């Protein structure tokens, strides 16, 4: 685990991005680290809705000035809620997807809300961004794990971290992310493998005992590195791994899952059907971790 965790948040002032910012600040405080709120400039009219109604309006302020007021407000709130976090802000002109992929190169974690606001259309107001737009782009090309956060209460934070792991092909980056998260929270780690009972390659686990053996082998070094993290191994059954992991997520503070590498943009979702289903439907934050890094730049910027 890094001595000081570096977390980047995609913050656009929407309710979900506020939840992401609060999640990130709590993680940064627990990891004695920094959280950087990255805001992609919106049209000036947007800030009339995003800034609180009791904040006196500044009729002379332009878009960047209003954006900075929003960032200053967020930084002040997070500093009070999570005094152990070093909260920083950054106002950028790039599209949010491209901006977050760029800054992910020097981050340990990128945190996003499930939904956000798009750029204001010509007639004013907002365009609602579907859960797959910016999030899918960032999860596909970021240089670090990406968390899609939801609002959580104090009880949820104390729950175990759940790691969805393929016993036959365990993802070391996902294992590392899960152990680090559990250590920061001071919670246990529940490692879940879904045995769908299907025939597979020779090294694919065919029964529960085989699966547990493979999981124990994959986790042995990490257990030694994180001796204070209690670990439970669960072999679940069902033909739909995403559905079983969603069941496990109901009792989790965070779900961590690995994502398959793809040559182009992910389809149907960020790294496959299981991460996509979890990101869209889990009731707790979801961390998506790519097994191998790929070039961080991509010609298509998501706005």
TrEMBL record:
Residues 6-148, 159-290 form the UspA domain. It holds the Pfam family Usp. It comes from Dactylosporangium aurantiacum. This is Universal stress protein. Belongs to the universal stress protein A family. The lineage of its organism: Bacteria, Bacillati, Actinomycetota, Actinomycetes, Micromonosporales. SUPFAM superfamilies: Adenine nucleotide alpha hydrolases-like. It comes from the Bacteria.
């Amino acid at each position: 685990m890094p001595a000081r965790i570096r977390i980047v948040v995609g913050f656009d002032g929407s309710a979900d991005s506020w939840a992401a910012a609060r999640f990130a600040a709590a993680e940064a405080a627990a990891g004695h680290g920094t959280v950087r709120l990255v805001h992609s400039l919106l049209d000036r009219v947007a800030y009339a809705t995003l800034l609180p109604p009791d904040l006196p309006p500044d009729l002379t302020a332009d878009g960047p000035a209003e954006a900075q007021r929003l960032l200053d407000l967020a930084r002040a709130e997070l500093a009070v809620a999570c005094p152990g976090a070093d909260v920083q802000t950054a106002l950028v002109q790039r599209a949010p997807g491209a901006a977050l992929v760029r800054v992910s190169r020097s981050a340990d974690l990128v945190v996003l809300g499930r939904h956000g606001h798009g750029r204001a259309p010509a007639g004013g107001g907002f365009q609602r961004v579907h859960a797959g737009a910016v999030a899918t782009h960032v999860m596909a090309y970021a240089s670090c794990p990406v968390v899609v956060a939801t609002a959580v209460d104090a009880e949820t934070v104390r729950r175990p971290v759940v790691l969805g792991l393929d016993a036959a092909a365990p993802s070391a980056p996902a294992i590392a992310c899960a152990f680090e998260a559990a250590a920061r929270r001071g919670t246990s780690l529940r490692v879940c493998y879904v045995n769908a009972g299907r025939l597979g390659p020779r090294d694919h686990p065919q029964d529960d005992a085989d699966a547990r053996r493979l999981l124990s082998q994959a986790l042995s070094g990490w257990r030694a590195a994180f001796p204070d993290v209690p670990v439970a191994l669960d072999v679940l059954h069902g033909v739909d791994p995403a559905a079983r992991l969603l069941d496990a997520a109901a009792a989790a503070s965070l779900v961590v899952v690995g994502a398959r590498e793809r040559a182009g943009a992910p389809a149907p979702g960020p790294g496959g059907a299981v991460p996509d289903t979890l990101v869209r439907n889990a009731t707790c934050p979801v961390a998506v971790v790519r097994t191998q890094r790929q070039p961080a730049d991509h010609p298509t910027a998501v706005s």
